[in-house]
Write a structure and sequence with these properties.
globular, 30% helix, 21% strand, 4 helices, Rossmann fold
Length: 151
């Protein structure tokens, strides 16, 4: 079984750093916007002791663990749905994912991470409005916030 998660957020909030930590893959990380243009993709097997115990009993020829595919999407900016910062391309990449992990910068000179959350929310909703099909809406995907803090 496979499950895909898009890692999204504004530029320079730590998306690629999170991707690297989760997947152990080397990726470009730099302190300027749009270091990531093409999405980075990494697959991680989900350890499950129950699967191992079942395999010991039934001794299958092959054991296939659940995997999560993480997709490191380039930073979204305000008006991404209008194409700002190649936004249309980046938003389209999210549509194929099962869920979204939004990285939010919660340190330095960002005393209001809620504003960043609202910016991404608006961009997802505006992209949904453009969609002729009303299935697989970006704004209805399961979403988890990952706060990138100083610690």
């Amino acid at each position: 079984m496979s499950f895909s998660v898009a890692i999204v957020g504004l530029p320079n909030v730590g998306k690629s750093t999170l991707f690297k930590a989760l997947t152990k893959r080397q990726v470009d990380i730099a302190p300027y916007p749009f270091t990531t243009i093409s999405p980075n993709v990494g697959v991680v097997a989900v350890p499950d002791q129950r699967l191992e115990k079942i395999a010991e009993v039934i001794k299958p020829e092959k054991i296939t663990p659940t995997v999560i595919e993480f997709i490191d999407i380039a930073g979204l900016v305000k008006n991404a749905h209008k194409g700002e910062g190649l936004g249309n391309q980046f938003l389209a990449q999210i549509r194929n994912c099962d869920a979204i992990a939004e990285v939010v910068k919660a340190f330095d000179k960002n005393p209001t991470p809620e504003d960043d959350i609202e910016t991404i929310k608006i961009e997802l909703e505006m992209k949904d409005l453009e969609s002729k099909e009303k299935e697989n809406l970006l704004s209805k995907k399961p979403l988890i916030y990952v706060y990138n803090t100083k610690d």
